[in-house]
Amino acid sequence: MNTYKKIAILCLMVLSGLQGCKKDSATADDSAKLKVYSLEGIGNAAVKDAKCGIDLANGRLYSVVAGQQHQNEIDIAYGYMTTGDPSYYARCFLNLSYAGCFCGGSSYFSYGDQPNRQGYSSYSVLNATRIEAGSEQINFDQLAARGTKAALDEVFAAQPNSNGSVNEVTFADGADNLVVSHILFTTVKGKRGVIRIKPYVKNRQQNYHLQANEISIDVVVEP
Fold it and tell me: I want to staple 130 with a disulfide (CB 3.0 to 4.6 A). Which of 89, 113, 165, 223 is the partner?
């Protein structure tokens, strides 16, 4: 075999190897496993020391006061807002820029609404995580089992998107029934995912919106 043929074969082998590496890398990116976790004991922010602030990317919970040191990581929080006609308090998730803090009573979304207020400083941290009520056709278990970005792409593509992304998602009705069980989100840092709210114990006492009313959730989120 002459020298030119040897060089040509060697070049083809190198190119083939590079293409193989590129293909393997692309496959790895496409099939990167989503993170799946559960959180329990998420409490209404109106209650002192309740763990209401959620870091969706890392699956961590913070109370209002503890969360002051982690505002850039907290994406949404759980509490109560007035809604409906006639108005009533209902369980909600809000993004941090809207949840208010030191908000003068616009919500029960931070302990700052109560006397001796304390809360996240939404004036300096604007974690406007995009959230929206998800379709009830979402199969959370199937998404978690597949665990790929492609599977998450399909969920987002199938979303009716009738309301689009909002600051607040109310997931209970006036009788405290769970009416929205899935919430889609995209964090400020670009992590997309789905929240599944687990069934909870209803509370219809007169001051229910000032009680802990803990909930638990499952989350699928991009790594």
Answer: 165
